[in-house]
């Protein structure tokens, strides 16, 4: 089944409506930002303002949150209308940072090698035909020691029911937005990372903060799911990060001449 990504072009300023068609994404944004910032700050302790690429930035929700946390963010997306929305909502954060945006294909990033401290990819891998290629491109633009943060649905019956049977029927996303065949197993993510030269460091899960009935009731009444939390249960949405190995220490060590005794020559 082809994946329908074109509806994102038509969202307009509804991208930024917390009770609009992407209300669930707003509920999700705080938790994913907290996880990504923790990973980035942990890996980049000596970098005051990490340079971060947000692949699949859409209307700029995640990019804006990362910038507010003190990152120098570039948001990339193939949807020109979505990027126009992101730019309209670009306001310098208290940190003094504001995201910048660029149009481009995630499979062929129009960016230089080793130019970012971190790459984030949220709710994107399940929407592309070749996630391994996307991860290879992310690895290419990462500096040695940089991190690739991601989240994507697991290919399980729970994720299928939640994101296709329920979400698309309730109007959280149009029919055809998700294709179960494009959901990824943890082992597949590990293999893709390894093939790209990255070392998978963490795999966690996301779960609803409320029980499913409470979340459904909140959405039907107020379009408010109630947020998400990190968990060790990987059956729904997987999050995690992989690291690009640090560059080898190229410092030249001065060799000490070895004394050779007479008669041993």
Question: How would you describe the overall organization of this protein?
Answer:
The chain is of the alpha/beta class and 265 residues long. The chain is built from seven helices and eight strands. It has an eight-stranded mixed beta sheet with strand order 3-2-1-4-5-8-6-7. The longest helix is centred in the N-terminal third of the chain and has 21 residues, at 23-43. The model is unreliable at 250-265 (pLDDT under 50).
Summary of the model, kept short:
This protein is of the alpha/beta class. 32% of the residues lie in helices and 21% in strands. An 8-stranded mixed beta sheet has the order 3-2-1-4-5-8-6-7.
Distance between the termini: 76 Å
Query: How many DSSP H or I helices?
Result: 7
Rounded radius of gyration (Å): 21 Å
Question: How many domains?
Answer: 1
State the low-pLDDT regions, or none: 250-265
- The shape, in one word, is globular
CATH class: Alpha Beta
The computed structural class is: alpha/beta
Strand segment count: 8
Elements, N to C (H/E): HEHEHEEHEHHEHEE
CATH topology: Rossmann fold
CATH superfamily: Vaccinia Virus protein VP39
Query: How much beta, percentage-wise?
Result: 15-25%
Strand count, sense and barrel status of the largest sheet are:
8 strands, mixed
Task: Provide the helix percentage.
Answer: 25-40%
Overall average residue pLDDT? 87
Strand order of the largest sheet: 3-2-1-4-5-8-6-7
């Amino acid at each position: 089944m082809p994946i329908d990504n074109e509806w994102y072009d038509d969202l307009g300023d509804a991208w930024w409506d917390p009770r609009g068609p992407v209300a669930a994404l707003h509920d999700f944004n705080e938790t994913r930002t907290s996880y990504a910032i923790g990973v980035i700050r942990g890996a980049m302790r000596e970098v005051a303002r990490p340079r971060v690429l947000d692949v699949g930035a859409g209307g700029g929700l995640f990019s804006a949150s990362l910038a507010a946390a003190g990152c120098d963010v570039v948001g990339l997306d193939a949807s020109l209308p979505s990027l126009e929305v992101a730019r309209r909502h670009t306001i310098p954060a208290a940190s003094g940072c504001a995201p910048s945006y660029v149009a481009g294909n995630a499979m062929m990033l129009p960016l230089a090698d080793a130019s970012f401290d971190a790459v984030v990819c949220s709710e994107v891998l399940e929407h592309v035909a070749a996630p391994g290629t996307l991860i290879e491109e992310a690895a290419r633009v990462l500096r040695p020691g940089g991190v690739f943060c991601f989240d994507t649905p697991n290919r399980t019956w729970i994720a299928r029911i939640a994101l296709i049977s329920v979400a698309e029927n309730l109007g959280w996303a149009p029919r055809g937005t998700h294709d179960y065949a494009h959901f990824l197993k943890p082992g597949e993510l590990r293999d893709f990372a390894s093939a790209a030269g990255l070392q998978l460091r963490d795999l966690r899960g996301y779960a609803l903060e409320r029980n499913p009935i409470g979340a459904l009731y909140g959405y039907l009444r107020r379009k408010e799911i109630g947020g998400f939390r990190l968990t060790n249960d990987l059956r729904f949405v997987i999050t995690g990060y992989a690291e690009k190995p640090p560059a080898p220490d190229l410092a030249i060590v001065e060799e000490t001449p070895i004394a050779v005794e007479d008669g041993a020559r």
